[in-house]
Each structure stands twice: as C-alpha cells, then as structure tokens.
Amino acid sequence: MTVTHEVVNQAPPLTGFSTADDPALLEALHRADAGWGEPEVRELGALAGTEAVQEQSRAAEEQPPRLRTHDRFGHRIDEVEFHPAWHRLMTVAVEHGLHAAPWAEARPGAHLVRAAKFYVWSQAEPGHGCPVSMTYAAVPALRSAPELAERYEPLLAARTYDYGLRPPLSKAGLIAGMSMTEKQGGSDVRANTTRAVPAGDGTYRITGHKWFTSAPMSDVFLTLAQTAEGVSCFLLPRVLPDGTRNGLRLMRLKDKLGNRSNASSEIEYDAAVAWPVGEPGRGVRTIVEMVNMTRLDCVIGTAAGMRAGLRQALHHTTYRHAFGRALSEQPLMRAVLADLAIESEAATTLALRLATAVDRAQAGDAGEAALRRLGLAVGKYWVCKRGSAHAAEALECLGGNGYVEESGMPRLYREAPLLSIWEGSGNVAALDVLRALGKEPAALDAYFAEVDAAAGADRRLDAAVAGIRKMLGTLDDPERAQRAARTLAERMALAFQGALLVRYSAPAVADAFCASRLDGEWGNAFGTLPTTADLTAILERARPVSSPESLTEAAG
C-alpha cells in the first residue's frame, strides 16, 4: 500500500490525566474544612482520566440500553439491557459514595466531598449520573415516611451496586428513580391524571401513564398520583416483597438527543402497589426536596461538562499549529480559551458553594438552608443555561476535529441541554426564583449576606448588587415580575459568581469576570474579554499542572 502522507500537526490522545487537577475544586474543599476528602477525590479523578474509563464511556454511549418487554416464550419481563461498561461505571460511582452515601455520614463536609467526586467522575461519562443523582435526592424526600426510611435508607446509602430485579429489601444496595411528569402536564404535575386508591392494608394501587421516567431499571421509584386529598407521593418498587413483579410496564425507551447511555422511558402503572410518602395531598411539597437535590446535581454536572470541554480545547490548541505557532499562542485563541476558563471556574465555584450550603443546612444553619433554596434556583437557571454555549465554543476550538464523534466533543454538546431541561427548564427555574423570593423572605436576606461578604472589593460587583436591589423594588406587580424573571435570575447568578470569585479566585480571573460579566466589557460570544484581561494568568490557572501538555512543556 502506498504511503501518501505522514500524520502531523494532530494532538496526541488526551489520556492519563486527572479530572481532580483543578485549583477551583481543591480550594473549595479546603476552605469548607472538607480537605479530608481530597485523597479520594484525587483517586477518582485519576481513574476518570484513564484510557480504560474513556473506552468504557465510549462503549456505553455508542451501545445504548435496549428494552426487552417479553421473553421468547411471550412472558412480560420489562427489562432493560445495558452494555457491561455501564455497569462498571455505576459500580465505581456507588462504591465511591456518589449516590446516597453522604446521608449516612456524620462527617462535616460529606455533601461537599460527594459533590466534588460527582464533579470529577461525571467528566468521564455523564449519563450514568442520572440514576446516581436520583438516588442521592430520594433520601430527604423518603424521610417524610420515617418507617419506610428506616428500612430503605440504609440500602440506598450502601456502597454496593447490586443490579438485578429482586425484592428491594433482599438486596445489598438500591438505586432509586423518580417518576412524575405526564404527557398532558409536563412540569405542571398538579395536572397529573395517574390515580392512587387505598387498598385497605396501608398500601395504594396506582394506575396511569408517565411520560418521562429516567432510569426505569431502578429498584424503587418516588412517584406522584392523584388521591382523594390531591396529588400525593408514593414509594413504588419494581419487585414486590414476595418476589412477584409489580404492575409497572415499560412501554418504550426514549430516543434522545443526548444522555444516550442512560435509559429514559414511558411507563404505565397497572394497579401497581405503592406505599404513601408524606401527607396525603402534599405530594408536590414532599417531592420538592428530591427536586432540589437533583437540581444541585444539574449545576454540578454542567460545571463538570464545562471543565471537560475546556480541557479538550486547551489540549488540542496546545498541539495544533497554524500560521507558524501553536493555536494556544495565538492572541485571539488565547482570548477564547481564557473566556471559557472564566465561565468554567465561575460555574464550578458556585456549584461547590451550593453543596457547602447543603452540608451547613443539614447541620441546622437556617441561613444556609435559605441560601440553598434560592441559590439552587438561581444557579440552576444560569449555569445550566450557559452549558450549551460553552460546549459549542469548546467544540469549535477543535474545528472539524471537534465535530466528529471520535473527539468526544459531540457527546458533551448533546448532553448540555439536558441539564438545563431536567428538573425544570429555564422558565421553570426562573419562576422558582420568584417563588422563593415570595414565600421565603429569609432566602433573599441570605443571598445578600453572601454577596455582601465581598462588598468593597470590586466596584463593578458593588454596582451589580446595587442594581439587583433596585430591580427588586420595581417588581411589585406579578405580571411585570414574570416578564423580568429571567433577567433577575441572570443578574443574581452573575453577582453570586462574581462575589465568590472576588473572595476566592485568582485576581486575574475575578477581575476579568467582573469587567466582562458585570461591567459590560463583553460581546455576545466567548473570546470578547476586555483587552486589559490578564490572559496569561487566567490560562495558567486553568491549565492542569499534570496534563500531558504541561509535562511536555516541562520536559522541553
């Protein structure tokens, strides 16, 4: 065979790195007295960067789950088959406590350490984060039924991934799902038509259709159904205590834009047996705790995707040459990379601050509980909204190389919109900001206490916070407030991020963030930072010190 060309000017494979090699991540652990978790975070981050795990991620994505409704004899089985790589990824996640383990740990910072591990591991493969996240979120909701929590919580928190359809209480560990939305209601779960009737023995029989149920292979589900008292919450197992299948039928798996390694389905309940969780008619309130925790993971997951995209962009542009020098040395590309780095660090810092608020709220700090309530709505809206734009720009840094599946960038790009949609798309999150402000005045006090901790450090941040106070004074009319909800959520998120960066990040990062995001020295696309921004300092902080390109530079 004739050799027509030699492969040159291509970046080498990006393997052997650590997703935990991230100053913003490690600094957040130590300032919240959670530095004890750094060794395990580093261990998991190093594993995420291995060639073997990257291959598992590719296989799980390229060979998605398949639904088998019947066996060869015609018996209904409703089973979902996964590639073995999925189960390996799930095993690592559960054994490292990324699911509900923090609820069983009394150690300070347990939820922050769990968030850090979720951040580094989901950079390897985000799809399996869905059932991991829902298991994490199920525990606080389940605690509304103390007798059920006493039996199920230890198994939800167990660090054993025990896959297979068996009675839940006979297993060594459980995975939980959530089944709420219906085709006629979507986010308006009060419009649900699924009904639950008492069976006379403390259980209910649930009949109805659910339009979008992710992770249908889970052991138990928290689900909503109408009762005589109104929408109520229930715990529904796939297998009953006597070993028989519950009346849960998998109708089809969704053919999704992204998140392909994870199964999402339409299901029907046919007189399915379920146990009530919380007060009858108060199901929405009961399940809100689960929603809030999964929203936290949406913010963490988006920040993880940003970091993964930034890493790929930094790696490619370091090795790719054009017009006589590496792309990463070209002034315009450096501006783009620095802008991506700022967005990434702002998202990471906010996500981990919200995880810290979970820890402190669990310890009884009412102010942190209030901050978590409003901060999650604000962060869910803005950080997740920025994920898609960030992924697109990071992909473009690789040019045509980034547009092909083998680069991994299309997977990041397809995944990003999910985290903005899941647990309430943009409008739902923005309206939740208004709801929190209206129903929990302490939440606004907690928010201003947080951003005011940076008062006087940067005039642009001070002006942004003053502008939010002024804006809030004009939103006394409900219609006007709704029209302004997105603007308010965006401004509150940017001020929150700015305050955190001013207090904790490198001066060059904080200065460029405040100049661009808060003071208007920014265009409508990445790469439009003010010319005064210290690109070198920003990029030095963003570039992992143990990355292949850094090692190459050190050797040279």
UniProtKB/TrEMBL annotation:
Domain Acyl-CoA dehydrogenase/oxidase C-terminal: 281-437
This protein's record includes keyword Ribosomal protein: no
Pfam family, one: Acyl-CoA_dh_M
Highest taxon, organism lineage: Bacteria
Record bears the keyword DNA damage: no
Cofactor: FAD
Family, as annotated: Belongs to the acyl-CoA dehydrogenase family.
Descriptive protein name: Acyl-CoA dehydrogenase
Organism in which the protein naturally occurs: Streptomyces paromomycinus
